Amino acid sequence: MRKPRKYLTAEEVAAVRAEVAAGAMQMDVAVKYGIHKTTVSRIIGSSRRAPRLTAAQRDAIVKDFLAGWTITEIAERNNTSDTSVGRVLDRSVYQSKGGFIPYVPKATDA
Question: What is the CATH code for 55-109?
Fold first, then answer.
């Protein structure tokens, strides 16, 4: 059975923001106010997602790959994960008759 929804007052929301800003752990604040840790994240406006790679970063990843760098080296060089590099490569180039054909980005990719 689900827990009944807990609504915070404006004062409690302000207190949550202040406590997290002062350095309190989000999980500790969540327990204190009887809410979920994702609710605390939502209140303070934080996100677990990393920012998107820019078109320039994606181009650099493809160039490094075509220059012979490993995926791990490219990830370290661009301060991102191996998975992100692999995803860029999957979307940017594909193997066709022994060669790589670069992906032409759409206007929405820029």
Answer: 1.10.10
Distance CA 56, CA 21 (A): 34
pLDDT of residue 97 exceeding 60? no
Closest CA to 71 of 93, 95, 89, 50: 89
pLDDT tens per residue, range 21-63: 999 999 999 999 999 999 999 999 877 777 888 988 988 998 8
Whole-prediction pTM: 0.50
Q: Check if the beta carbon of residue 36 is closer than 8 Å to that of residue 6.
A: no
42 within 8 A of 13, measured Cβ to Cβ: no
Domain boundaries, the chain: 10-44, 55-109
